[in-house]
Design brief:
globular, mainly alpha, 11 helices, 184 residues, Arc Repressor Mutant, subunit A, Rna Polymerase Sigma Factor, Chain: A
Length: 184
Amino acid sequence: MESRSDRLRRLLAPLHDGARSFARGLCKSRSDGDDLFQEAVLRAFDNLDALRDDGAFRIWLYRIVVSVHRNRCRSAFWRRLVPFGERAGDDDVAATGGYRASGWTPEAAEAARRARAALARLPAVQREAIVLFEIEGWRVEDIAVLQGVSASAIKSRLARGRERMRAHYEHDAAGTPVPAEEIT
């Protein structure tokens, strides 16, 4: 009989990098994404006996990541009361693979910073849909199953999220804050 830890290791191995990237994409920083991913893996380990079909592990794991992320978003108010500072620049280099990576350039680091800032301004459900569709390459139908809504709702979230990101980029390029009417 396979132990629970061996089962999790076997199921997680092919999904590890993608799920971790997804978690990082949902968060404002790479370290927050890593924390989110680790918390989700721990929750998956605790509840692994409830998973009856190994073929459903991918959706199940991503649902856990989304659930943990939403719980964190709800408690964001309390985190604002206890600020944790990050050194500027460390995350930008890390998010692009480090300065020794072949594709790293200062422009790529700036683009990654701008993308994270734009994603951070989106509501959680839109950010999840954008990251899953645009970055992870998921199909609309799979995202709908994961978020528990219709495919048309996902398409709407994608369109609204893209529009909000576009507004953020336009105002960021002009050096002006995004007006409140364009955020809602």
